[in-house]
Design goal:
Helix content is 34%, strand content 24%. Helix 1 crosses helix 10. The chain has 261 residues and is an alpha/beta fold. The protein contains 10 helices and 11 strands.
Length: 261
């Protein structure tokens, strides 16, 4: 097995042309012809994940967030990105990221999370074009209306969230839900236009809660929490095509945000 074999499977599902202009998905460290003996899947690459890869004998790390996002102007190992890249080079670890291309792929991140939360997807919330099946977020319905508080409590249980920031609970029940993994503040208007009572996403700013204005419940479920499903999604994508190979789900992929309760 070589890197190219893994990359082709991922990019058949989530092609690089679909990533956002600002993104840096794809092969970041290593070459396509390098042999691979094991893969570790994670959300972010840090020292703990690289330690885990070494212990497991995994010489390729596939992450959701690119460890190189902004241009690296020096390699002094003063930042996490510099340190991770330098260490990967030294230890012969291939780094690959599937970020916004995985977000907007048909059946991608938001679709996957929606299934976990019992939301029957009807359509993409923000398609790349009027006719495209690629796009960000989804909108769909629950099997039947449920009390809003019960639904939010269910979300916290399924995603292991300590707390949810939300706007005023302007509806007693919820049936139609919009969802976008990761930062989703820019899609509040689309969630409202789609007729959603609740919009689940992350990284909402103060004004986003004001914008909800009693017409929509916006609920911030956390960036890491909403995207942790990337590990399971990537596992499913790869093992569907390559069944007999050492693929590991990271147990060291942890939320950098902590809550004091």
């Amino acid at each position: 097995m070589i890197v190219r074999d893994i990359v082709e499977v991922i990019e058949e599902y989530a092609p690089l042309w679909a990533q956002a202009e600002y993104d840096n998905s794809g092969l970041l460290v290593g070459t396509l012809e390098r042999p691979v003996h094991g893969i570790l899947l994670c959300v972010d690459v840090d020292d703990a994940v690289l330690d885990e890869a070494r212990q497991l004998g995994a010489d390729m790390v596939v992450s959701h967030h690119p460890p190189i996002f902004d241009p690296l102007r020096r390699m002094t190992e003063a930042s996490l990105s510099e340190r991770v890249v330098a260490r990967a080079v030294r230890e012969g670890v291939v780094l690959y990221a599937a970020h916004t291309n995985l977000d907007c792929a048909p059946g991608g991140m938001s679709h996957y999370l929606a299934r976990q939360l019992g939301i029957r997807v009807e359509r993409v919330l923000d398609p790349l074009s009027e006719t495209s099946v690629y796009g960000y977020g989804v909108v769909g319905t629950l099997d039947e209306p449920v009390a809003v508080r019960d639904f939010l409590r269910c979300v916290t249980d399924i995603l292991h969230i300590g707390s949810i920031r939300h706007s005023a609970l302007c509806y007693d029940t919820v049936h139609r839900v919009a969802l976008c993994t990761g930062a989703g503040g820019s899609l509040i208007g689309r969630a409202f236009s789609a007729g959603a009572e609740v919009y689940l996403a992350a990284d909402f700013k103060y004004n986003h809660f004001l914008d909800a204005d009693g017409r929509l419940i916006v609920a911030d479920i956390g960036h890491f929490e909403s995207e942790y499903c990337a590990i399971d999604l990537l596992y499913d994508i790869i093992t569907k095509k390559i069944a007999t190979f050492a693929i590991h789900k990271s147990v060291q992929s942890r939320n950098p945000v902590h809550y004091f309760v």
